[in-house]
Amino acid sequence: MAILVQKYGGSSVADADCIQRVAERIAETAQAGHQVVGVVSAMGDTTDDLIAMARQVSADPSDRELDLLLSTGEVISCTLMAMALRTLGRSAVALTGPQAGIRTDAAFRQAQIVEINPERMLRELERGTIPIVAGFQGMTDDMDVTTLGRGGSDTTAVAVAVALKAEYCEINTDVEGVYTADPRLVPDACKLDVIRSDEMLELARHGARVMHPRAVELGDVYGMPVVVRSSFSTEPGTLISRGDDMALEARQRVRGIAHDVDVGRVTIAAVPDRPGIAYAVFDALAQAAINVDIIVQDVDREKESNLSFTVGRDDLEKAVAVVRPVAAEVGAQDVHASADLAKISIVGSGLSLGPGYAARMFGALAEADVNITSITTSEIRITCLIPESDVPRAARSLHAAFDLDEESLTGVAS
Amino acid sequence: MAILVQKYGGSSVADADCIQRVAERIAETAQAGHQVVGVVSAMGDTTDDLIAMARQVSADPSDRELDLLLSTGEVISCTLMAMALRTLGRSAVALTGPQAGIRTDAAFRQAQIVEINPERMLRELERGTIPIVAGFQGMTDDMDVTTLGRGGSDTTAVAVAVALKAEYCEINTDVEGVYTADPRLVPDACKLDVIRSDEMLELARHGARVMHPRAVELGDVYGMPVVVRSSFSTEPGTLISRGDDMALEARQRVRGIAHDVDVGRVTIAAVPDRPGIAYAVFDALAQAAINVDIIVQDVDREKESNLSFTVGRDDLEKAVAVVRPVAAEVGAQDVHASADLAKISIVGSGLSLGPGYAARMFGALAEADVNITSITTSEIRITCLIPESDVPRAARSLHAAFDLDEESLTGVAS
Using CA atoms, how far apart are residues B87 and A69, in angstroms rounded to an integer? Predict the structure, then answer.
């Protein structure tokens, strides 16, 4: 019997009614002949509520204790889900991350899974019991409870699927699947039936919120097929897989548009043109654990240049504080920050093979009167930094320029 | 440096302010030169709230999942307490029952502690860190989380104190200590400075709510001194200890009065006088896991008798249902239940040495016009079953008859 891992997010288990509906879905999947493992997030706003409690007793709660505190959110939801399944007459058992054998490093708040010992989950499955695993958490060798940070429950689900050699992993969420663009911005956006995991990774990294890039990457690395679908409908959703068998022809096109408004830009103006300056700046940022996204350096005067980079908006203030003394030390003129830019990206496996894509993108943006501040590319992605206020217009113009509204008509080779 | 275990109950950690006040007490105790280990209950009504959540998804939630769910209550309070201590500049670490090395059997909802491996707690103490342990919980050999049932957090505290070879264990609660009687009923009731653990055990078993008999017994068995005191004052409270050095003279007196209104009585009327009938009745009750307290059998007719026993009121209906078919089978006339009785007890180590105590008790009750339904005794206790409505009057008359209001004047040998 094939093992199937089903993950349900916080909005899918927000209250008792939601939990009962999800329990019915899990029971139906088991009834249909699968060995199901459930992975659940904390109910609705539980995590925020727990953080608020911590802040009441401590302005700066310790990471270790915060992790242990937050872990209770998923423990609560997994026990309630197991109870709801038993009420439906199914044998079910709630497992915390530690009980499910999820071993992590000791980097509290953003632990990485080191290993999963699936022995308990397999034992429960063998006796016909449905394990419901608390997402987002694991245990160190010293029995300390950790949380996995952003995208934690998705990551738990994919990692559990890999450890159990599952047939595939289902991410049940509040959208129908992966779309060619954000349907809130682009009314013509179409749901994709299938997408390559490397394409999905680029979309997720550059703003598509449907699944965390970390979990996408894990599925990609281990070749675990992932299906993103809605918790609230029976539609099949979107299959994310390595897709080694996809014809090259089918790959030569834009598959989707991602946008990300969580962009803060720091510009160091008039940096002297000397070796070692970029190192000084980005080493300081790395020491402060600030993730840098797009870096652009352009020489605008003799022996001087502007150095710009983007970070998440939450990190913007901190990044400026880190960079300012470094800039002063190397003799730069000024450091300034802006929080009014956004990224818009086109993603598709064939982009690097067809030189016309970049031109078509820039042309569409120009026609829509969108000014481009910076451009970065990867093998399968082109990203432009544009004014945040232009994002909806840019997304619609790109969607039309790359014929993405025809997606559902043309179908996708898989 | 002496180890001291401090337990704080649910009302002492009901909200962020309470937690901060308790953290200050713990910090002060550490400052005063103790190696402190904290044990905390769940905040205020958390446990009730969690049970209500379970009932929303299941009319009869499974014990294993309910235990895992309930365990989150103490995990939340211990993490918040550790955070509050760190805010005060103390090194502190929150430990779940499993992390504190508390191993139990697999009797969910009422697990017994099998063993405590104090390695982690000792390691934290050695490095100057205050461990804050989640009360009421432990872990089976299969990594399942259990709860210890009634009196669980008190039991955790005493057991941890025993495992750590602590100097003593402090139970911080919402009363000032152990009183000669319930001060709500007997305005003259006095706080005891010291009480023998066997006397405390009888008081606790027969209605004194200040500490659960299970935890008292554990302290008695292992000779661990326990101090009951208020979380909200600096008064010294009551020392409960084996007291082997107490003079016999000092023991020859009544130490306190306990009352318990959680009494339901089942009477099987006109039971034929044949061997094996009591066995049939009480075996059936044991099978149904109903705890029986007082048993009275009195022959009122030739070859027939009435058989009565008391149970907790929650069990009364179930007990009648269990007993009715047995009664019919053995040819008894009728089974009836009453929930209007209560127990009142006098406790003191010397009672069995002085024959006058029983007579004085019955005399005082008669003078107060209290009718006695049944009487039971132990070496150090006499209990009367009386109408519930007479309890306050009975308590006051006994308190006066045994000169308990002079307690604070005469002092206590210790």
Answer: 16
